[in-house]
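Consider the tokenized backbone below.
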């Protein structure tokens, strides 16, 4: 059984005026009733803006490319999952019995999505300033604790985008090829295509984002191998 949602609100230092928003943010689609996917959609946008504003203020020496790379690192699934665990979200997420038995409360994609939904819920409940305050509280230590630029390793999608932009090629196109499994245990297949170079690969993962990263990594490997063989 999930723990009290209020424990998560307390962990991030925010008091909800409308507790139903908090409950919805912590409700996975496998659970009966209104779930958190719409809040996740909103929270994704709010989170990106709030993190961008945080980086703009704290990383004053970074250029546009460095800021983009830092933001991508902070809002990627692995980072959001780590923060979700830190604030005790696994104990409070509401799942179906089947999803709970299969370990859904520890699944990175579910927890990352729920954290985004939580940010969206705070934005609706208290406005952007409230959401920005919470995001700053969560992410500022990560930014301040970075010893050097090496911490902001490029993810595969960012690396592929920069590889293509540096050579004046169009950006890659991503599309979902297939989803398999039940709604609460889906596997995604995503194609990444660089049509100008006639390169395409299909990635797989337990979330769309993870599948996109897998596909991008494969395409980048092909492009780098091709470059090395022709040099």
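A designed sequence for it:
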């Amino acid at each position: 059984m999930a723990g009290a949602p209020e424990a998560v609100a307390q962990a991030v230092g925010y008091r909800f005026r409308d507790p139903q928003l908090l409950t919805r943010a912590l409700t996975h689609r496998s659970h009966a009733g209104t779930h958190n996917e719409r809040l996740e959609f909103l929270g994704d946008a709010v989170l990106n803006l709030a993190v961008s504003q945080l980086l703009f203020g704290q990383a004053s020496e970074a250029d546009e490319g460095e800021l983009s790379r830092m933001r991508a690192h902070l809002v990627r699934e692995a980072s959001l999952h780590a923060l979700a665990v830190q604030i005790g979200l696994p104990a409070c997420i509401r799942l179906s019995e089947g999803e709970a038995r299969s370990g859904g409360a520890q699944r990175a994609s579910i927890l990352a999505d729920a954290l985004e939904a939580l940010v969206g819920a705070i934005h609706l409940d208290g406005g952007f300033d409230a959401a920005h305050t919470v995001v700053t509280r969560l992410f500022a230590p990560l930014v301040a604790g970075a010893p050097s630029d090496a911490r902001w390793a490029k993810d595969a999608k960012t690396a592929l985008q920069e590889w293509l932009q540096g050579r004046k090629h169009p950006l890659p196109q991503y599309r979902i090829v297939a989803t398999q499994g039940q709604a609460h245990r889906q596997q995604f297949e995503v194609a990444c295509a660089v049509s100008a170079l006639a390169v395409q690969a299909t990635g797989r993962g337990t979330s769309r984002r993870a599948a996109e990263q897998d596909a991008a990594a494969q395409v980048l490997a092909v492009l780098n191998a091709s470059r090395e063989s022709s040099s």
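The first strand starts at residue 173 and ends at 180.
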